[in-house]
Amino acid sequence: MTTSSAKVPVNFIRGWPAPSLLPASKLKAASATVLSDPKLFVPGLEYGPDPGYQPLREELACFLGDFFGVAPDPRRICITGGASQNVACLLQSFTDPAYTQAVWVVAPCYHLICPILEDSGFRNRLRSIPEDEEGMRVDLLEEGLKEFENAKPRDPVYKELSPDRKAYRHIIYVVPTCSNPSGKTMTPARRRAIVEVARSYDCLVICDDVYDFLTWPVLSPPPSSTAPAASLVPSPPPLPRLVDLDRALGPSPHDAASGGHFGHVVSNGSFSKILGPGMRTGWAEGSPALAHGLSATGSSRSGGAPSQLAAAIACEVLRCGALEDHLRDLVRPALQRRHGLLVDAARRELAPLGVEFVSRNWEADGVGIYGGYFLWLRLGEGLPGASEVAKRCKEHENLIIAAGQMFAVKGDEQAVDLDRNVRLCFSYLDEALMVEGVERLAHVLRTWNEPLGPDSQRDQGLNMATFK
Ligand SMILES: Cc1ncc(COP(=O)(O)O)c(C=O)c1O
């Protein structure tokens, strides 16, 4: 066997779109249109209004309305600097660390969300709620909320938020569709249950809805790269967003008490996965009061919504239909194919060793649907733990995989055991390398108890327990 350093690195951690999926020519054309016309480039290059570039709010309202089958309303949309930046703004405008009791985070969670939540005063107040097959365990969520309500006296709100904004009692953080890292999608029943709990306990549910447009039917065998793209990916109907379920229920008793219909869910959208992360532009959708309150965040009041020029360019990409073309003709077919290749390799190489995974998330018209960027593996009981496997993969195979513990909720790590899980990202790697990576992982598992090669002496003391 070759030594680890002689092998081409295979990095399954990077959750980026592959360079071949970046719409450079479409963005170039949109930029040329914007920068050639003073009616577009003057507002694009000056400070913008607080809720963001108005034409983009209007385009997005129609795009989202068509996609999710809801009535378009630009007043419900606020332009943001992307999903991550916007979580910080939401916490600035809709929480007060003295009054807001805790942030309830789905576990496993998108690992980079924790520092954003901690930076807003919630260090040691993140609470881990595990997922089951349907999504976040709403029974445990409600149990936790109840205990909190009984145990803690109410502190006052110290921030000056009213009348445009309010402090919620709790924040809930979820990725309802094609979650990062588990790939899971919440069922419609679980979505409704979470919305109901949020409305009862005065919670704001922050939904990172960043993978909603990236779903496809699961085909076996995976389509070839030369197959006509559009015929492969009839877009499956989306599941209802939590924000739309909350909207349909109208104001809650807490809305009445706070003097405005702020609602209990915000959909945090982003152009990162559908155009490119470098756009650093996204949108938040919630009630008109919530969108207005978000636009009143101090950093938006000073100079207007972030990413104004990127927003003008994104608007043009939407307006001329280039975004829909890009998703239909390139992104969905490529992800569908990459996912298929990874699942095939995992079925062939890993399943016989006792590794489990879910390859379809829900059904539409009898066809399995999957989506997003990630495959979440479970190492069967007889196999070694994920952290040790990841360590050995790196040292002996030049293979980087994300061990489950990386996705634990910070400060509440013990609540959910993730050391049997591994996340593999299929959006970024070269296709052939991705398959080779699975073969290398299988090799590590298969030879776990064999003596290590000469370059591996430092590892001899590692877990040598037998499996199976
Ligand atoms: C669940 C989730 N939320 C947010 C982000 C980051 O979004 P943005 O680039 O818009 O900040 C990611 C990126 O991987 C993600 O997976």
TrEMBL record:
Superkingdom of this protein's organism: Eukaryota
Protein name (database record): Aminotransferase class I/classII large domain-containing protein
Species: Thyridium curvatum
Aminotransferase class I/classII large domain sequence ranges: 45-441
Organism placement in taxonomy: Eukaryota, Fungi, Dikarya, Ascomycota, Pezizomycotina
MF terms (GO), sorted A to Z: 2-aminoadipate transaminase activity; pyridoxal phosphate binding
